[in-house]
Design a protein that fits this description.
The chain is of the alpha+beta class. It is about 20% helix and about 30% strand.
Length: about 375
């Protein structure tokens, strides 16, 4: 197990096993961002009870969204987005997986721990029941909870990027030097990390995520947004065009294949049970460090989904000779047109989403597969449970 430490002025998380952490607070949490499923009056009522309990019993100030329709509580302005990591101590979600994806989109890069209560359809990412909110939140505030780190993707949009030079198509390379070289070619654009901090993250088994400074980029659908942190998947498709999507793909700087299909999905393990699964991709345990490459209805019988290691850096480019442009979306949001020569560079982010969990990831995941997707369900299977 790799021991890592993630610190901030308010909380400290200790790794107990790979991707599992104990949530320990350096000082008592002071604020909580409350997010609910939009358009649900019942969700608003539940959130009201949670807000009152946090404020009156746990001495934690609730912060609500502008559209929450909850008076008497502090809110943020849309101009404040993206929210800085230190804006709140933790996040409380009442809704389904889409509500948690919305919470993920509110922060620029690092995101505080998320406590998700189920009030949706499937609930792969919402492990807690609403009737247990008092016990759950009490454990979180007292530092008696565990956190599962859900990996995210970091996607960069590059306009009119030239085609990779011929030397990038070499097949043989030294894995170590290749990885270092690719880190230089495709760095995450996080200029607030100084050299010493980056070296410390790369060379130490302890990771310190400081709060001083965040990238100055908009998280909501701004026309000039060019970087995205994705929890489920990045999708490149044909959009309104009647023609197949035509894109060239590169792996660690080397040409991989040309895709002719309805689209292409680049997914995290968390997103493997979402759109990627519907397109024929594998279901991957969320603790497996990987990135999924899943074509959507490819124009080839031999074009099968691929699973890469999380250190892989992928590039998707619309070639100059493509019949039409392509369209990209990020967790189903921020739909953007990719013109000829435009590229998407996608890698695993160094900032996972810390999801407060009620069980070990394997137990929770297997339970979700059976209950939410009816995985391998039959009369014989049911009798054994």
């Amino acid at each position: 197990n790799i021991n890592r430490t993630m610190t901030s002025p308010e909380f400290l998380i200790h790794v107990r096993a790979c991707h599992i952490m104990d949530l320990k607070w350096d000082s008592p949490p002071k604020t909580a961002l409350l997010i609910k499923k939009r358009g649900e009056r019942e969700a608003t009522e539940h959130l009201q009870h949670i807000a009152e309990y946090l404020k009156n019993e746990l001495n934690v100030e609730p912060i609500v969204e502008p559209h929450a329709d909850m008076h008497g509580y502090r809110s943020y302005n849309m101009s404040d987005l993206p929210l800085p990591f230190h804006a709140v101590s933790f996040i409380v979600c009442v809704g389904g997986d889409g509500t948690l994806l919305h919470a993920n989109s509110l922060f620029a890069d690092r995101i505080p721990p998320v406590v998700a209560f189920f009030f949706g359809t499937l609930g792969f990412l919402t492990p807690y029941k609403l009737e247990d909110y008092k016990e759950t939140l009490s454990h979180v505030v007292q530092g008696k909870s565990r956190v599962a780190l859900r990996s995210r993707l970091y996607a960069q949009l590059r306009r009119k990027e030239p085609e990779a030079p011929v030397q990038d198509e070499k097949v043989e390379c030294d894995p170590c030097s290749c990885e270092n070289e690719m880190e230089k070619r495709f760095p995450e654009d996080e200029s607030h990390l100084d050299e010493d901090e980056t070296k410390s993250e790369n060379n130490s088994k302890e990771y310190f995520h400081h709060l001083l400074g965040t990238p100055d980029c908009a998280t909501q659908s701004a026309p000039d947004k060019s970087s995205f942190y994705v929890l489920n998947e990045v999708v490149v498709d044909r959009g309104p065009s009647p023609f197949l999507t035509e894109v060239d793909t590169y792996c660690n700087g080397y040409f991989m294949t040309s895709v002719r299909a309805d689209g292409l999905i680049l997914s995290t393990p968390t997103g493997s049970t979402a759109y990627s699964l519907a397109a024929g991709g594998a279901m991957v345990h969320p603790s497996v460090p990987s990135m999924l490459f899943t074509p959507i209805s490819p124009h080839s019988l031999s074009f099968r989904p691929v699973i890469f290691s999380e250190s892989t850096k992928l590039r998707v480019r619309v070639p100059d000779e493509a019949r039409s442009s392509a369209w990209a979306s990020f967790d189903g949001r921020f739909r953007t047109e990719l013109g000829h020569g435009d590229s998407l560079r996608v890698s695993t982010s160094r900032y996972p989403l810390p999801l407060v969990t009620s069980a070990t990831p394997t137990v929770q995941w297997m339970h979700d597969l059976g209950c939410n997707l009816n995985w391998n369900q039959s009369n014989r299977q049911t009798k054994k449970k």
